[in-house]
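Quick one:
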Amino acid sequence: MLIILNHWYELKLRLVYVIVSFLVTFITSYLYSDILMYIYVFPFILRFAEKKFIFTNLGEAFSSCLSISLNISLMVTFVFFIYSVMSFFKPGLYKKELHLLRICSKLLIVSLFLSVCFVYVVVLPGVINFFGHFESSRLFELTLEAKISDYLDLVLQCLFWISLVFQTPVAIFLFVYLNIINVDSLLRKRKEFIVVCFIAGALLSPPDIFTQLLIALPLWVLLEITILIFLVIDEYGHRI
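Output:
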């Protein structure tokens, strides 16, 4: 009974740590929300240096700052949450299970970082350039006046869905490691997985083909890279 109470106390303590981490990160992010907002809009500024953002109601700019602060605090707290989960389960795990948990935790954090880089380097510039070409002054003046809230909603949606997509290799690694699936089955069902990628893109995105492709194509590429990595590991392991 005493052991259960100790575990319960530790669980509550770590939960408090996570909540405090979220609150501190949120407050800090809000205090520097103007700098963070500039980072968010930087891809837009690169494409439209002469443009400016607008807000059409009094609370819109404030809610945009809160949205940015919430997004940053969730990402930072997610990393701390993974560390807290590892620390809580560490005493009760076998060495092999602890090794698996460490690998998955590192892969989750790395994939989260790569997804953010992918959004800012590839996705956002592509989206901005694609929709920016619809500006026209040939027959009549068609110009862009971007609302800050709409732009941030687009950025946050891209970050959320692409981050979710980038967790696919982690899930596949876990399934292969636990022998739920193997490399041969991945190769045999490769075509079915490609179809699933595009179905997931259709289900997890708004009803426009461009956003669906932004989810489906990275998911497909990540699947191919994951299969290739497992093939190399499998071949290298046989040689050893």
